[in-house]
Amino acid sequence: MTRKPSEAGENDAPGPRSLAENSIASDTARNDRVETMLAALEDRGDLDLQALAELARGITGCARGFVAIIEGPQTIVINAGNGGTRVLNTDETLCCDVVRKGEPVEYRDLRRESHLAGHPSLNSGLNYYAGIPLRDADGEIIASLCVQDFAARPDGMESGTHAMLCHLGVIASRVLITRNHTTWLRDFLDIASDWIWEHDPVHGVTFLPTQVNTPARTCRSADGSDTVEYEASPELLALLASHDPTQPLRDRRYQTTYRDQVHSISVTARARFGRDGTFVGYRGICRDVTVEEESRRQMEYLARHDPMTGLANRIGFHSAVDAAFADWQETGDPATLLLLDLDNFKIINDTYGHAAGDELLKVVAGRLRACVSAEATIGRLGGDEFAILDPALRRDLAIEECATSLVRALSEPVHFDGRNVSCGVSIGVALLPRDGGTPDQLLGNADLALYAAKAEGRGRYKVFQPPMRERIENLDRLRRGVLRARGDGALEIGFREIRSLCDNTLIGAQAVPVWTRPDGSRRVLDQLHEDLGSSREALDVGNGLLEDAVSLAKDWHRLAGRHVRLRVALSPAQLADPGLPFRVRSVLVRQGFPSVSLQLDLGAGMLGALTQDMLTNLAQLRSDGVHVGLTGYGNGGTPPALLLAAGVSRVGLNLSAAAVPGAEAPLRLAQALARFALDLGVCVTAEGITSRAEERTLALAGCDEYLLAPSAPLKSQAAFIRLLARDDKNDQPLSQAFAG
Fold this sequence. Notes:
Strand order of the largest sheet: 21-22-24-25-26-27-28-29
CATH architecture of the largest domain: Alpha-Beta Barrel
CATH class of the largest domain: Alpha Beta
Structural class: alpha+beta
Number of domains: 4
Strand content: 25-35%
Number of strands: 29
């Protein structure tokens, strides 16, 4: 700042000086003071923009100095001295020229700038302007450091003064960048669930105040005003006290109570050490992860529980089984595993809809809870499969009582939408450790017991016995033997005759696989498809047998001079194959066999497991002219709705299964079943006839043909062709059929 002559002291100079010498001395002193002030400002950590504007005014000797911060269409003007802060339209300020040009601007005489005619600065009597652009960290202009004066300066600003003003502009840019970063950080902390803290062993934890819900207390200051002090929870202090400073501290979590609610807090920090390596505390952040922890617990719950029933799902139940084995190994405590399968759930689901099925599953879950101990783990393994692991069941009598109560409870009707529906249940039981040394063995043996309960007629329970495992092992040997026989050509086709109950005419034959074993013995495989199950091997074997049977039967029509029917059993694997209709169509075309002469048979057990894709396959087969049959009719319930949905045109009435032992009329049930099928428009084949009395009785009941009993010898292809050629319908009585 230039002092007036009157302000000069008497001892300011040693002797008389010229005016030029005095001017030079004054400028030198001013420059020294300015450089000193600039150095001090650079060293300070918190620079004030108003002080910078005042310094710019003093450097240039102008009447005004200010920092103009550009905020889009508006500009915040921070004036030096008592000018305060004003907000102007950016277009009305001279700093917009600095932004537009991107470099320092100097107007020596505003009156000579034609584009500034009528500008507010001229109206205020200001005729000089200079502005320095201020840039952010990316180099974008965000403000300008400006000075203005009333008097014009025709010669412009001195080069030294301009250099100092530019240097001051660099400092102002740093101030703005620092303030922007600080504002951004505070804004982030105010909206985030994080808060910053610093710790030292002497003063404890000091928080940076933000708007987060940090536990705090209100204190009265000496001047009577209230201040807020943020407190560290005892849990945080205990965590820091027990942590080794040499080890990372990242996302350590603890719980604390704040405003009567439990909060989960995550702590991440870095240890601070002095120059001598002494530990001096931590600096870090805390984050409220209550919602995150609740979401994690919810996801963990859903990962291990069935959302519909609230029971454990397959993953959760298997974990419980693993835990039971660990407890047994440690304490020797046994437990009992029960596998349950609802008997008629699919029928109820298909008949009454999924809403009824879902309601039934919820009721089943409630009844299961009521029948077991509080220690038990109940799981829904999928669909209508449930499981119970109960460590309280240790004695045979308790197991029997529990299983019996479960069968009774799940057989009780469920009232839904004005209807009473009931399903029943089959249960397989295995005991830990008696029936399994590993979780997989225990579950596998319980599954075998469940299979045995279903095979005996459902609605009951079975406890695992070693012979059940032997049966499975025998079936496994059978599967492997049949697959080898298929590859070696030792799996052949035999034919079981189908004759008219009216006149004993030979109508057709059922194709039956026959295995010639290595020792030369032959085994008839009537239950081959059931034994093979739904494996990939079952699909290959079934398709191969179908091809072989049609190939053998392709000349029957020509030899007999009439229609001759071929019956071939379908395996579950074939029925589930999306390519079944195309495969059957290809076989018939390739062999030249009429589709109307082919009957593909389903097993009675397959009817209750039909899916929509399977029904679609059957519909396509029927549209090609192929007939759909059902074997084992009378062996257990056959729902009429499924019978019609599958498009079954002929059923095989199983006489041995339909007969009621000890009844006055042994065939009365068979006759009723036959009449029921006929009322549905389905033809009936009598299977397993062994006498003329049965033949006549079933003929009167409505059966039109019979299939020889499994005890009758099969016909080879050559023998069956001879029968067709002779057509000896009247010369061979039924009794001779069993003699071949």
